[in-house]
Structures are given as C-alpha cells and as structure tokens.
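REVIEWER CHECKLIST
Item 1: Sequence provided? yes
Item 2: Single chain? yes
Item 3: Sequence as submitted:
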Amino acid sequence: MRDPSIPNELFQENERTAPTHEGRRYVDIGPFHTESGGYLPNVTIAYETWGVLRGMGENAVLICHALSGDSHAVGWWSALVGPGRPIDTNEFFVVCMNALGGCQGSTGPSSMADDGKPLGSRFPLITIGDIVEAHKRAIDLLGIGRLHAVAGGSMGGMLALEWTVRFPGFAERAFVAASCASHTPMQIAFNEVARQAVQRDPKWRGGDYPLDDPPVGGLAVARMLGHLTYLSPASFERKFSRRLQNKERYEYTLGVEFEVESYLKHQGEKFTRRFDANSLLVLTRAIDYFCLTDLSRSRSRYLFVSFTSDWIYPSWQSQQLSEMARSAGLQAEHKVIDLPYGHDGFLLDGELQGRAVARFLR
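Item 4: Structure as written out by the authors:
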C-alpha cells in the first residue's frame, strides 16, 4: 500500500519541470536492524522523483548513487538522466534515494538522536545489503510494486547488483557502470588511507564531534586521495601537465606551486562543506564489505559498462560480473568504452554509454 502521508501530486508532477534540491522528499521506514547487529529506532530516507508513474512501476527506474552522491540524480548524472536523456524522465518514472548512512537527508551518523546530539559513533556499521533493504522499504511505501530497471555506477553499481539478488525479479533490468563484485586489496587500501586521514584528525574525537567543528582537515585529505583515483594519468596530464599556479617560476615554498595542487586542495575543501566525515567512514566500510560470489538468485537482465582508462575499477571487474551473470543463465552485455576520463567516465559520458543505456532500457 502507498503511504497515505505521501501526497498524490508527487506522482503527477510536470514531466518537463527542471528538478532541483527543493524537490527532495522524505519517508520514514520505521525501526531498522542492521546486518552488523546494530539498531536504529527510526530511519528516514530522502528521495527525489521525476516523471509520472505508470501502474505499479512498469516504467519505474531506480537510480543508485555513488559514495559521495545524493538523491539529485538529474544533477550528478545529468549526462544520462533527464528530459530527452537516455534515462528519459519524459518516459520513465525515475526515483533516486540518498543512501542509509549518508548525509543528504537520509538517516546517518550526523542525524540527531533523541538526546539532541548527532548519532556519531552510535551509528552502527552498515552493509550494501542494509542500504538496499532500507530503500526497498521506502519503495514499498511509495507504492511502487516493481522496477523496470535499477541503475548505478561505482557504489551505485554495487547497490544495483544487490537489488537483483536480494529481491529477485523485482527489477527487470540492471545497468551497472564502473563497479565490481568485490573490492581488491588495493581498493580496500585506498579506502583505509582515506579513513585513517579522518580518524587521525584530532577533531574527529572518536566520531563524536560537534557538527559545527568537524574534522575538516582529515576529510579534505581523504577527498584529495579520492580524486587521485577518479581520474586517469592521461586526464591529469591534459588538465594540468606541470603548469605552475599563477606564477612563472618556482617560489621554493611548501605552499601551492603547481596547478594540480591547487585543484586537489580546492576539491578537498569544497567537499567538507557538503559531506560528513563519519558518513565517509561508514560508506567506504560498507563497500569494502560487499562481496558478491554469484548471481544465481537473480532474475534480471544486465548491462555492464566499464572504461579503459578506469584504473581503480578496471574493466576486468565488469567482465567478471558479465561472466558471472552468463554462468547463471542470465542475459548480460559488457560494453567497454575507450575514453580518457578514468573512473569519472561513468559520470561524464552521455554519448557512448548513453546509447548503450537507451537501447538497453527499451
């Protein structure tokens, strides 16, 4: 049954309206037990929708965001999602939900507990399965009885995969970009360095920092490390080469000398203004825990996309997923795209990836 507290006009909005963050809505899914043994007395999930729902969900497409994303899919995935885009909001009813453990409206470590303080270290460790379970409860309350497709890249790809095995047949198709069945030791290592950057910041305080004085130094360094993995060597060379930052010669200081240093510093500082340090810890741990061994329970069709220049989620991991699907007797296609964008390719490429997605969804 659809939650009566959710207004009917939500499902009759103008398909061509340009969505904004003001379109964010919330649904309470009640108490929640995590796979780690933790307990949350009440969980709220933030979400946004675009388009008009047909039937019980014949045209519903669920978008799953990457680690630092949010519910505003037409913003961060504008290459693929929107009016006239491959995931066309004039045709599909598109839903995107902020992850459990996030910090953009869904319950996470920065959410307030009954004592008026942030949950902080009291927020339990979670899994990809927990996030999908929470989102399924929200989907049920929205009255969506099936999904035409579930789609996502990176962490979002893991979520899409989990949907297909946790709720077999609920999503007819799954589009999984730049993702994997499980992290390699190197992928875990990058996440651990990011976590250590946060945890070694004195302001982290064991996870119980005031929201107006968070560990921004450690979080900024963690984000800088992340940006090293998002791009490719070729894209760094093209963007920056060895150009100096607003100068013609070295100043022989430990300040900013090169353009690439200025870029990383800017990205780190910008990130601290929109993301919570504890959410970074919780979500990176969740994707490190993810380990999909087979797709035998799935009843979905798959499109896997990878990028030749993506060295942090290399193409062989998507090929492994494609072979896993085929060995389970499922329809699967793996498209390898030769672009120099690195891991960011799944966010930036609306043309080659877009044609494959449009064809797959129809």
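Item 5: Key structural point noted by reviewer: Residues 185-199 form the longest helix (15 residues).
Item 6: Recommendation: ____
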